[in-house]
């Protein structure tokens, strides 16, 4: 049985924080693989905030190439929209019964976890591993299947910060995996040309 960490997100765009946390989990927390579950539309986010899903996928593919413990899963792209994590986890378990799945989320998401659809079912049927994020330091975990990854590094990069910075003309290339900055700038320039 493989121990798989399910790391959901829009990866809008993927940044060094995502990759460093996932890398830490495979090398220090006993996960055989981390599956980046790239979501087409987060029910808690506005659709116009998202870059094209094909572009987000291409960036993610580029930056995980060569590290065999990282995989990408696009199962939600074929599911009814909006997708919900509880349905996705159940479908993954049905498709890959030989694997043990753990949901990996940041402490900022844990703060709003009670708003997720059927969050009690997730906590009852799956393990949840919470990694620390700045601003969510006082984390209260009182569910048997949920645990805090206390030693995980705090790397304060966010996709929102990166998109905002690029739109303001800031050069934030070192918050991104090598080679992605130029592609993202070009993407946003192309989007401006469409209007």
Q: In short, what is this structure?
A:
This protein is α/β, with parallel strands linked by helices and 195 residues long. Helix content is 36%, strand content 17%. The protein has a single domain, classed as 3-Layer(aba) Sandwich (Rossmann fold).
Keywords:
195 residues, alpha/beta, Rossmann fold, 6-stranded parallel β-sheet, 36% helix, 17% strand
Structure in words:
By secondary structure, this protein is an alpha/beta fold. It has a single domain (2-193), classed as 3-Layer(aba) Sandwich (Rossmann fold), CATH 3.40.50. Helix content is 36%, strand content 17%. The chain contains seven helices and six strands; from the N terminus they run βαβαβαβααββαα. Strands 3-2-1-4-5-6 form a six-stranded parallel β-sheet, with helices on both faces. The mean pLDDT is 90.
Please describe the topology of this protein.
Blueprint: E1 2-9, H1 16-28, E2 33-38, H2 53-64, E3 70-73, H3 85-95, E4 99-106, H4 107-111, H5 119-125, E5 127-131, E6 146-148, H6 159-167, H7 180-193
Parallel strand pairs: 1-2, 1-4, 2-3, 4-5, 5-6
Portion in helices: 25-40%
- Output mean pLDDT: 90
Structural class: alpha/beta
The largest sheet is: 6 strands, parallel
By CATH, the superfamily comes out as HUPs
Poorly predicted ranges: none
Radius of gyration of CA atoms, rounded to a whole number: 17 Å
Residues in β-strands, percent: 15-25%
CATH hierarchy: architecture: 3-Layer(aba) Sandwich
Q: What is the tally of helical segments?
A: 7
Report the span from N to C terminus: 51 Å
Per the CATH scheme, the topology name is Rossmann fold
Can you tell me the CATH class? Answer: Alpha Beta
Query: Could you spell the SSE succession in H and E letters?
Result: EHEHEHEHHEEHH
Number of strands: 6
Order of neighbouring strands in the sheet with most strands:
3-2-1-4-5-6
How many individual domains?
A: 1
The geometry reads as: globular
